[in-house]
Each structure stands twice: as C-alpha cells, then as structure tokens.
From TrEMBL:
Keyword Signal: yes
Pfam name, any one: NosL
InterPro entries assigned to the protein according to its UniProt record, in alphabetical order: N2O_reductase_NosL (IPR008719)
Protein's name in the database: Nitrous oxide reductase accessory protein NosL
Species this protein is from: Rhodanobacter sp. IGA1.0
Amino acid sequence: MPCSPITPLRRAAFVLTLALLAGCGGKPVPAHHAVDTHPDDACAVCGMYLDGSPGPRAEAWISGRAKPLVFDSTRDFFAYVLQPENQSALQELFVQDSTRIDWQQPAHAAASFIDARTASYVAWQPLAGSMGPTLAPFASRTVAEAFVREHGGAVLGFAEITPALVATLDYRCPAQATGAHSTLQCLAAPSPLLGLSSHPPAAPSPAHPRPHP
C-alpha cells in the first residue's frame, strides 16, 4: 500500500509533536529574582554573618539549590563566581546597588539588589567592605564615574573583573590598572580623605531613591 504524501498540515503537526516531546524531556529553568537577606545569613565564602558587616552584599543562584548563596562582600562574591569549577552551575547573580544602601548598615531588602552582570563596579575605592577592600557596584555607570571622580578608583564591567584583580584588590590604585580587555583609567583617591561619606552618591533618577538609614 503506497504511503500517503506528507501534506503541509501533517508536517506542522509532526513538528509540533516533536517540540512537545522535547519540552517534556527538560523543562526550562524558571528565572530567579533577588530575595531579602537576613542578619543571621552567613557568607558562602568566609562564613561570617551579615549582621554588622559594612558594604554591599551579593547573591548567587546555583542550579539545584532552593535558595541563593549569600555573600557579605562583593569581593567574596567574585572570589566564588570566578572560580572555574563554579561556572557551570551559576544562574542569576545579584549585587546591591551602592546608591540604595547605607554603606555602614546595608539594607536587607531584595529591592536593593541589581543584576550583577549588567552593573558597573568601582575597584580600588577607599570604602571598606566586610573583608577589607571591596568593589562598589552601581546600576548606573554615570553614577559610578561620579563616585570615582570624588573618591578615586576605576570603573569596571562584570567581564573585566578577573581572579587576579580580586586577589590583589586594595584601597589605592595600582601603578597601572588593567582589566580583562583593556587598560583602564584609575584615579587616585583624594589625600587626605577628608569629608569622605559612607553614603555613595545617589542615582540621578528619582525612580530609585536611596532609602533612609
């Protein structure tokens, strides 16, 4: 008995069936969002509690976990996410926007976090994090550049931060500041650091006001 020709309708039905079968075999991973942190949350790298630690914090969603890993500093965050053995399990990554927190007493609210991969970071800046020198994240590169002009440092994108940079991070600019892709301008901090505020500059847009401490 001769086979019936494959009509456009049959072809469409066949393609739809294959798509449905493929979908059943592996459901897409739902997108995660930043969550509130808590004073008794412990940093996934150093083990210190968040309560009482200064500077912006971070969260990393890892495949297979019901909750994100929490970090008490952006330095510890990058020390973890840049490790080759951790790369394949990384999902959504978040850091606190420096304009949405009191540096000395950071907020715990999920609203203070931004996408870590699109943030701008100020390295070699003078404000201490929980573990010493740290990176100050900003949602706006313009605000990050304004912070550098006032306090020193250099603005980096997520992809420009390397393990070597994190390992040698300090409060002062190195003789030559280099990122992963290019030579970066690194401005020396004012000396002495008179009038330095623990509150990084607020973003110019009224859509994201900085919460009062």
